[in-house]
Amino acid sequence: MAGIAFVATRGGEPTEREVTTVAQEQPSETPSPTATATPKPKPEPPAVQRGEVYVEVYNNSGVTGLAGSVADRASDIGWQVVGSDNWYGTIPATTVYYPQRLQRAAKTLALDLGIRRTALAVDPMRRDRLTVILTEPLG
């Protein structure tokens, strides 16, 4: 059967048609402008004002004077350091702790000081400032 169909259709030119698109004429009137919804760009959050954010620095390592030297470094960058002392407790790694409203500031401070870890503040940390707890000297 297939052989008969092949022989019967062999040599015949395919029947193809050319398809063209015809543009419709627009009325000569100027079309009224249509409102297009353009997404408004999301406004950039304001830059962190380092001098307006309180920072406390605590030493949780065996390195004497570590909190004081890091506090001086943060002050030199422009942060408002309001205290430094020793921290008693177990902290897994050097961390900048923050209350929720200061999350962006915490990330900025961490970048400024070369700290890789940030976390939400926990008790007994104060909720109006950033708390830096050092477990080793900063690189």
From TrEMBL:
Q: Where is this region: Disordered?
A: 1-49
Skewed-composition ranges (Low complexity):
27-39
Q: What Pfam family is a match for this entry? A: LytR_C
Q: Which residues form the LytR/CpsA/Psr regulator C-terminal domain?
A: 53-135
InterPro entries in the record: LytR/CpsA/Psr_C
Q: What is this protein called?
A: LytR family transcriptional regulator
